[in-house]
Amino acid sequence: MLKLGPERRYFNRAQRRAITARDGGCIIPGCKAPAHWAEVHQVKPWAKDGPTTVDNGVLLGWFHHHTIDTSGWEIRMLKGSPQVRAPGLIDPQDSGGHRTDTAPIRFSPDHPTATDRADQVTRR
Description:
By secondary structure, the protein is α+β, with helices and mostly antiparallel strands. The chain contains 3 helices and 4 strands, in the order αββαββα.
């Protein structure tokens, strides 16, 4: 029997429920999109043989889902849990690691905000 590709590309209802229970809403820190507004995103794309499994799916709000490939955000899965890394302009204090929490990014008063950092970069 000739098999031309994965059996299914889209997550089923049970998989979405499991991903929703794990993620709660958009996994991008600071995004307040609730689960019922979010879309399931495959971390390893289906077109690159990414499986349609709970361990390869995360919730992203509509905006983040449609801009994830060009926004600079990075997502990876580690033992079934999503981790995200912000673009440098958003999280200038980022040590290069991925975050496992989904809390909003906060800047202390003595560090530049993302806007100040963007101004510094464009002035160079």
